[in-house]
Amino acid sequence: MRNSVKTVSGAFIPALAAFVGSTVPAMAHPGHGDGGFVSGLVHPLTGVDHLAAMVAVGLWAATRPARQAWMAPAAFMAALAAGAGAGVTFGAVPGVESMVAVSVLVLGALLVLATRLSSGVALALIAGAGVLHGMAHGAEATGSLPAYFAGFLGASAMLHAGGWQAGRTIFARGQGRVVAGLALGITGLALLAS
Question: Pfam families attached here (predicted)?
Fold first, then answer.
């Protein structure tokens, strides 16, 4: 088991960094297609900002005791839905893309500081990131909004779960949390700069 954790963490972190580095220029929020369920389901997988944030929330959840792991994804998802509703209602907020990039940086910092920061503060920051991501995507939504948001929220939940599972595997021996947080921080900075 120890060798498999080392192998997974030794392979996952560089692969994540290579993936993020190769996709950052093709960043945030490509088209939404027809705005239906499939578009919503695919969208979180095609924007580096959203992909990084969803995985980061799952990774942070993996730093919590098992009975508390659900709190971060639940806070983000509720805030994501509320932010999306605000985005649909009020339209685009000036500078929201920059705020979304900063949220990826903040989520990386939360991962680095996971053992030093209170859960309440971290959950508030995670919810704030969720609102920003929701506002950005809600303002851009077209077509069948209920179907699009059902797909979008479903894909987000799957990415949270994937991040949580990866975190449980990678962090099992106390390895990789800081490296993953730094990789997310660098991703946030790259998104902000582009």
Answer: HupE_UreJ
**What tokens were used for 119?**
């859960």
In whole angstroms, what is the distance from residue 22 CA to residue 187 CA?
Answer: 11
> What amino acid is encoded at 50 in this protein?
H
- Residue 110 tokens read as 């939360």
Q: What is the pTM of this model?
A: 0.82
Q: What share of the chain is helix, strand, coil (3-state, %, to 5)?
A: 80, 0, 20
| Closest listed residue to residue 127, CA positions, set 90, 63, 73 | 73
Q: Which two tokens stand for residue 102?
A: 């900063």
Measure Cα distances from 37 to 27, 40, 103, 109 in Å.
Answer: 21, 5, 26, 33
Domain ranges of the chain: 2-26+34-193
- Per-residue burial over 116-143, b = 16 or more CB atoms within 10 Å of its CB, e = otherwise: eeebeebbebbbbbbbbbbbbbbbbbee
Which regions of the chain are under pLDDT 50? 1-28, 30
Kind and range of the H or E run holding 9: helix 2-23
Q: What is the pLDDT of residues 28-80, one digit of tens each?
A: 454 555 678 888 888 888 889 999 999 999 999 999 998 999 999 999 999 99
Q: Give the sign of the dihedral formed by CA 8, CA 156, CA 36, CA 147.
A: positive
